[in-house]
Design brief:
This protein is α/β, with parallel strands linked by helices and 309 residues long.
């Protein structure tokens, strides 16, 4: 199928695909992905203190702007990277986490959760939940306000962020002040229109999506923490910003989730992602329609962290 992409988006896709390898061998896929990410990672904004350490035994990276007030604990965004649960790390999304810390004037903590297939569901999800709990306990030491922590993630990271909100609600714990899900994979049905309409979409096909699912979980897995659309109750969840990409087999996952949250009384903000493809947030600064998405993401996160529950 042909997709009506802007020249800038088409150039971004071509450059991204130039790093692809034909092998399905996971180590090779990870090396290829890392090379691609490095090619799109700019110099970090000035004025950030960046530290790598561990929370609950999980590697994390903290970005703290120098201009944060010394009088009050800082707001914070916990960021969960995409990569189909199979690729990605603290470096792969540095282009975004550093920019968010600077533009939000907030601490951003990126989580290096364990990857499939070596660590299938629920191991990576458990890592994210453990980091969240550790952050609540250690917030004073980290000079972070535990009442102003949002969760965000793209693709598989959006899945993990949504699942974390579900798990916190079921445990009777405080929700994040907001959840930002960027082209999230949420376990939508195989017959959703976007699965067929965008079956050969650039950067993520329906076949590639199925491949990642198989590596992450058992075929009969139905847990809402793996597939958030399988939950039967969407009430009492964090306010949500959900952005999808127009040309993405996962588009309708986000559409369905936003509708379910809204109908359950959760405050939502939805971005339909005109002209976008899966993974295109990496084209920030290169593609005007991606810059539009980034601005909306920043505005949504600012709204969350400025207004504690």
């Amino acid at each position: 199928m042909r997709y009506p992409l802007s020249p800038e988006m088409a150039a971004f896709i071509a450059k991204t695909l130039s790093f692809s390898v034909d092998s399905l061998e996971i180590a090779g896929q990870r090396r290829s992905y890392s090379r691609m990410c490095e090619a799109f990672t700019p110099t970090r904004p000035a004025g950030l203190e960046v530290k790598d350490f561990t929370l609950a035994g999980v590697a994390v990276r903290s970005y703290r702007p120098h201009r944060l007030s010394l009088e009050h604990p800082a707001p914070c965004v916990v960021y969960l990277h995409g990569g189909g649960w199979v690729v990605g790390d603290l470096d792969s999304h540095d282009f975004l986490t550093a920019a968010l810390a600077s533009d939000l004037n907030a601490v951003v903590i990126a989580v290096d959760y364990r990857l499939a297939p070596e660590h299938p569901f629920p191991e990576g999800f458990d890592d994210c939940l453990e980091v969240w709990h550790a952050l609540q306990v250690q917030a004073p030491r980290l000079d972070i306000d535990p009442r102003r922590i949002a969760i965000a993630g793209d693709s598989a990271g959006g899945n993990l962020a949504a699942a974390l909100c579900l798990a916190l609600r079921e445990a009777g714990e405080r929700q994040p002040v907001g959840q930002a899900l960027i082209y999230p994979v949420l376990g939508g049905a195989d017959d959703l229109p976007s699965r067929s309409e965008c079956f050969d979409a650039p950067l993520l096909s329906t076949e590639e999506l199925a491949f990642c699912w198989r590596l992450y979980m058992d075929e009969d897995e139905r847990s809402p923490y793996a597939m958030p659309l399988n939950t039967t109750d969407f009430r009492r969840l964090a306010p949500a910003f959900i952005a999808v990409a127009q040309f993405d087999p996962l588009r309708d996952d986000g559409i369905c989730y936003e509708r379910a949250l809204r109908e359950a009384g959760v405050a939502t903000d939805f971005d339909p992602g005109p002209g976008l493809v899966h993974g295109s947030l990496r084209a920030k600064g290169l593609v005007p329609e991606v810059d539009d998405l980034y601005r909306r993401l920043v505005c949504a996160l600012l709204g969350f962290i400025r207004s504690p529950l």
